[in-house]
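Fold Annotation — chain and its backbone
Next Lines — sequence and tokenised fold

***
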Amino acid sequence: MQGLNTMTNFGWTLSRSALPSFLGFGVMSPVTLANDLSKYRNLQLGTDLPTVLKQAGANPSQAKTIHRRPALIQELEWRPQPLGSSSQTEAAVLSFYNGQLFRIAINYDRSGTEGLTPDDLVEAISATYGIAARPPTPVKAAPGHYDDQEELLAQWQDSQYGFDLIRSSYGPTFKLVGVLKKLEAPAQAAIIEAARLDDKEAPQREADRIAKEDEAERARLEKARLVNKPKFRP
């Protein structure tokens, strides 16, 4: 899991740092800057893993370790409770860098967004995070899962935090990604370096795996020999 799935798990093909900022396309008002971009629901970006586990009602065993070096990268899947009378459900992936929550990716259920336009979603999200910055046309990113094309539709930012609204061509579906900016770059660098190390060490890991399997097979045959040799009659 460590090498092959890492980049797809985190969706770095659409990393905020890999895209040019388009704040110049829209003026951020004082109202926008007054909104709290540090949270999604009751989860605060920058919070430590044990606190997030408690808030999300999750067990420590549910946190998956993606990489152990050069930094500890972990993921936790979380399903927020529907708000009010809504039956809408989302699936969120919480990402941690050395035990701190640095990224929240909320994948909206397609049935809950069917028929909605990007303007509808921007309007709803802006009620929480303030006025969005939007490009004249959606910003295209590199293909994601299975050559799926993703587009960056809108951003909500301040000096420390940021949220992106992203549309996937598969479905189509929408997701909202929030990040703690000071940890995003080191986390991305650690993930890229971990993938490089995994690729570099892959031949040795495969050789070790084969050697371990061969040793296990020799031990199995020796055990069978000790049982069968005294009983064998030609």
